[in-house]
TrEMBL record:
Organism, as annotated: Acacia crassicarpa (northern wattle)
Membrane topology: Single-pass membrane protein
Residues covered by region (Disordered): 270-294
Compartments, as annotated in UniProt: Membrane
TM helices/strands, residue ranges: none
Keywords: Membrane, Signal, Signal-anchor, Transmembrane, Transmembrane helix
Range of residues in the leader sequence: 1-25
All copies of domain Trichome birefringence-like N-terminal, residue ranges: 43-95
Molecular function GO terms recorded: O-acetyltransferase activity
Name of the protein: Trichome birefringence-like N-terminal domain-containing protein
Listed GO CC annotations: Golgi apparatus; membrane
Span of domain Trichome birefringence-like C-terminal: 96-364
Length: 371
């Protein structure tokens, strides 16, 4: 497998950055400086900032990508308001680099990016494939689905952007005589993940499912089997199995690992202090300012703790998108996803929309890590 970092490409990009400086004058120079601030040191917290109304947004129209799934395609499903499309994320200490899909494809030549997780991961994967396609609209692509695995390919760049549906990361096994067993300490899929160059994981929402939506009959850890346990505890145990896999298997010169922090839902208006609103329906603007009434998400605290306690915490870059997404109560499909009040969706995100920002940050982190 090719080495991840390509010093030659990086040098030429630095060179083109400095050319741009002279071409576009002071404004561009300032932008390049703040972009380089990210590139040259890790001081800037990309996750601490505010949403700003921005006429130049969105980065694409949903009609640019006819492969966006119905559940995310809010404008096609008739969402009438447009403000939610027009916000860009502004970190307090620096500027988020402009997303340059062609640059990303060139840097990734011969490599593959894989998302592993649930439908929030699918949401981010669809956003990224659309952002990339929009950057090189005349370059051919293929978009194939094979069971739980989706593969979006840009043959001209020899880049694959994949999505593997795996909602718990640890194993869920159907054992004929027993039932469906969720094994908190077993992670067979890890064998498959090792070959990829960029891995972006997520897992949370399925840990909350009960009743008919709960896909297991038993939870197993070692030789202990139980019917149920505190879901945050189960989540923590599974995440520890995952971080142990990362610690023991990931070679950082070949593979960059990201974890998409908890994507918040907005099913309860109490969190943002609006009386009488218990869905995200009708929300047209983000929460103003930097903080969100509800405080930190309990699952987010588990993720942070488990990552901190890794043998090598540097192996995982946390896409710490929880707070910035909490501010976007306006970004969900609500009745413009699968449609109507029975399909009320305050969990996923419209595309274009919030996951585009997650991918801008992913891009910033990738070009930074590539140095
Ligand atoms: C994630 O971002 C929030 C909001 O900026 C911050 O409070 C928290 O400390 C961050 N977590 C980590 C692990 O950086
Ligand atoms: C269950 O696992 C524990 C710890 O790994 C071990 O000490 C114990 O002997 C095991 N019990 C059985 C019945 O296998």
């Amino acid at each position: 497998m090719a080495e991840f970092a390509k010093p030659v490409i990086f040098v030429s990009l630095l060179f083109s950055f400095s050319c741009l400086t002279t071409v576009h004058g002071d404004q561009r120079k300032k932008e390049v400086e703040s972009e380089q601030k990210i590139n040259n040191n890790n001081k800037c917290d990309l996750f601490d900032g505010i949403w700003v109304y921005d006429e130049s947004y969105p980065l694409y129209e949903s009609s640019d990508c006819d492969f966006i799934e119905k559940q995310f395609d809010c404008s096609k499903n008739g969402r009438p308001d447009k403000f939610y499309l027009k916000y860009s994320w502004h970190p307090s200490a620096c500027k988020l680099p402009r997303f340059n899909g062609e640059d990303l494809l060139k840097r990734m030549r011969g490599k593959s990016i894989m998302f592993v997780g649930d439908s929030l991961s699918l949401n981010q994967w669809q956003s990224l494939t659309c952002m990339l396609h929009k950057s090189v609209p005349h370059s051919q692509y293929t978009n194939l689905r094979n069971g739980l695995l989706s593969t979006f390919t840009f043959p001209e760049y020899d880049v694959k952007v994949m999505m593997s549906r795996n909602v718990f990361l640890v194993d869920l096994v159907d054992e004929k005589s027993v039932g469906r067993v969720l094994k908190l300490d077993s992670i067979e899929a890890g064998q498959f993940w090792k070959q990829f160059n960029v891995l972006i994981f997520d897992s949370w929402h399925w840990w909350l499912h009960t009743g008919r939506k709960q896909p297991w009959d038993y939870i197993q850890e070692g030789n202990q089997t139980v019917r149920d346990m505190d879901r945050l505890v189960a989540y923590e145990k599974a995440l520890r199995t995952w971080t142990k896999w990362v610690d023991n298997n990931v070679d950082p010169s070949k593979t960059k690992v990201f974890f998409q922090a908890v994507s918040p839902d907005h099913l309860n208006g109490k969190d943002w202090g609006e009386k009488g609103s218990n869905t995200c329906e009708g929300q047209e603007r983000p929460v103003k300012g930097k903080s969100y009434g509800g405080g930190p998400h309990p699952a987010e605290l588990v993720v942070e703790k488990v990552l901190r306690e890794m043998s090598n915490p540097k192996l995982v870059y946390l896409l710490n998108i929880t707070t910035l997404s909490q501010l976007r109560k306006d970004g969900h499909p609500s009745v413009y996803g699968y449609g109507g009040h029975r399909g009320m969706d305050c969990t996923h995100w419209c595309l274009p929309g919030v996951p585009d920002t997650w991918n801008q940050i992913l891009y910033a982190a990738l070009i930074n890590q590539n140095e």
